[in-house]
């Protein structure tokens, strides 16, 4: 049976850490489904608007060869619904989320990958502001 992987993120100002996590997620199975945070959800999580709007971020993620399905994640509270709706066998996230999604162990396998060191969207924005 084919194995379905789901992951979530904002993926704003797309960078190598994003490529690495998506590639690692894809390597766990056959189909990779990515939930991209809506602009509103990103604002509520990070207290700032993303640089790229949700439509652009979805388009960037859809263009990757190891991504199969993309949807907009509107609410953090709906994780369980999304996992069930997309029939995911595995939920995979970067280890900045370690432990945070263990509650979903009853419906899927939960995997955390180490983050790519020394790069994040927030850091890129901060550095760019200083130039
Ligand atoms: N990620 C990663 N390595 C990095 C940056 C992000 O593995 N260096 C992973 C995160 O763990 C998450 C996914 O990429 O699973 C999307 O993270 P996101 O929050 O969109 O990216 P960040 O660069 O962490 O953004 P920010 O700095 O705004 O928190």
Q: Your description of this structure?
A:
It holds the Pfam family CTP_transf_like. It comes from Vibrio renipiscarius. This is Glycerol-3-phosphate cytidylyltransferase. This protein is 34% helix and 21% strand. With 131 residues, the chain is of the alpha/beta class. It has one domain (4-130): HUPs (Rossmann fold, 3-Layer(aba) Sandwich), CATH 3.40.50.620. A five-stranded parallel beta sheet has the order 3-2-1-4-5. It is globular, with a radius of gyration of 14 Å. The N and C termini lie far apart (51 Å). Cytidine-5'-triphosphate binds next to helix 1, strand 4 and helix 5. Cytidine-5'-triphosphate (CTP) binds at residues 9-11, 17-18, 21, 46, 93-94, 96, 115-116, 119-122.
Strand order of the largest sheet: 3-2-1-4-5
Name the helicity range: 25-40%
Ends apart, CA distance between termini: 51 Å
> Would you tell me the structural class of the helices and strands?
alpha/beta
The CATH homologous superfamily name equals HUPs
Domain Cytidyltransferase-like: 6-126
Keywords: Nucleotidyltransferase, Transferase
InterPro entries: Archaeal_FAD_synthase, Cyt_trans-like, Rossmann-like_a/b/a_fold
GO molecular function: nucleotidyltransferase activity
Please summarize what this structure is.
This protein has 131 residues and is an alpha/beta fold. It has helices spanning 16-26, 39-46, 54-62, 79-85, 121-130; strands at residues 4-9, 31-37, 69-73, 90-94, 109-113. The protein has a single domain, classed as Rossmann fold (3-Layer(aba) Sandwich), CATH 3.40.50.
